[in-house]
Amino acid sequence: MKYYVCLMVVFLFSVQIQAQKVAVFDSYSDLEKAVLSDENTTYVVNFWATWCLPCVKELPYFEQLNSANKNLKVVLISLDFKNQYETKLLPFLKENNIKSEVVLLTDKDYNTWLSVVDKDWSGSIPATLVISKRKKKFVEKMFSDYEELNQYVNSIIN
Amino acid sequence: MKKISVLLLFVAFIVTAAFTSIAPTPYKIGDVATDFKLKSVDGKMYSMSYYKKAKGFIVVFTCNHCPFAKKYEDRINDLAKNYKSQGYILLAINPNDPEVEPDDSYELMQQRAKEKGFVFPYLLDEGQKIYPQYGATKTPHVFLLDKNRVVKYIGAIDDNVDSAAEVKVKYLENAIAALENGKNPSPEMTKAIGCSIKSKK
C-alpha cells in the first residue's frame, strides 16, 4: 500500500513538473547566477540538445541519477536552437517525461562562455560539469551507462 | 616479499598506462599538419600536395547529419567559392564512421553534395585515420593552414550559427586576411558548439 502511495506522489509530482516552463537564458553568466549558484548544492550539469543523438541516449542515466540521489541536483542545459524551443524541445521533454530541471541556453557567444565552463572544452556535446563544494569537474564525453555516470559522479563528490 | 610484488604490480600498471595512451596530441598553432589522400564524392582522391600553387588550405571537418554543420553548409560553400580564386583551397572532411552514423555514408555524402551544389572536395576520412591527428573533436571544426601546412587558426567559422546575416565576427575570414598580410591571426583559436565525432569505441 505504501508503495502505491509513493508511486502516486511521484506521479503527481512529475505531472506538476512537466507543466513547468523551461527557463530560457541568453547568457551563460545569467544562467549560472540563477540556476547554479547555491553553494550547498551539488550540481550535475549536462550540456545536450535534442538534435544530438548521443546526448539523447545518455539522458535517461541523468534522469536516473536525479531520482536515485537526493543529495544532488541534475540540471540539463539544452543548447537547442532558439526557434525550436516550442517545436522540438518542449514536445521532447513531454514525450520523454523528463523530470530533471531543464533550461535552454541560447548564448551564441560560444567563444566566451565555453571557456567559463571549462578552459579545455572544445565544444562538442554531450559534456558534463559537476559542481560540488565550489569545485568544478568537467568531462567532454558520453557516458555509456548509468553505472559509469554514477561512479564518475560519486568519485567526485565523495 | 609482499611489498615487492605490490611494487612490481604498481610499476607494471604505470608502464602499461603509459604505453596504452596512444591518442595523438591535437594540433596546436604552429604545428605542421599532415597531408592526406582521401576520396571525394566525385570518386577521385585528393591531397593538399596536389595544389602546388595554393597559398593556404581551409580544412573543415563537417558532415551530413549534424544540425550545427548543416547550418554552415551554405557558408562553407561560399567560402570555397570566394577563396579559391585567391589561392586558398577549401577541403571538407567527413570524420564520422558511417557504421555508427548511417547518415554520413559515402553515398549520402554524394547525394548531399549534389543537392547543395558543393564546389569543394567533400572527402570521407575512411578508417578515421586523419581526424585524430588533427585533434578534431566535432563538426564543424576548422583548421586553417598556410602553404607549408603550418596550422595558423583552429576553431569556428564565425560567431553566429543561427544566422549568417547576424554574424558580428568572421573568425575564419579574418584569419585568412591576417595570413594575406603576413600576420598571425587574432584570435588564433576560437570555440564553438558542435556534434561530437562518431566512432566505434
TrEMBL record, chain A:
It holds the Pfam family AhpC-TSA. InterPro entries: AhpC/TSA, Thioredoxin-like_sf, Thioredoxin_CS, Thioredoxin_domain, Thioredoxin_ResA/DsbE_sf. Residues 1-19 form the signal peptide. Residues 16-158 form the Thioredoxin domain. The keyword Signal applies. It comes from the Bacteria. Keywords: Redox-active center, Signal. This is AhpC/TSA family protein. It comes from Flavobacterium glycines.
From TrEMBL, chain B:
SUPFAM superfamilies: Thioredoxin-like. Residues 27-177 form the Thioredoxin domain. Residues 1-17 form the signal peptide. This is Redoxin. GO terms for molecular function: antioxidant activity; oxidoreductase activity. CDD domains: PRX_like1 (cd02969). Keywords: Signal. The lineage of its organism: Bacteria, Pseudomonadati, Bacteroidota, Flavobacteriia, Flavobacteriales. InterPro entries: AhpC/TSA (IPR000866), PRX-like1 (IPR047262), Thioredoxin-like_sf (IPR036249), Thioredoxin_domain (IPR013766).
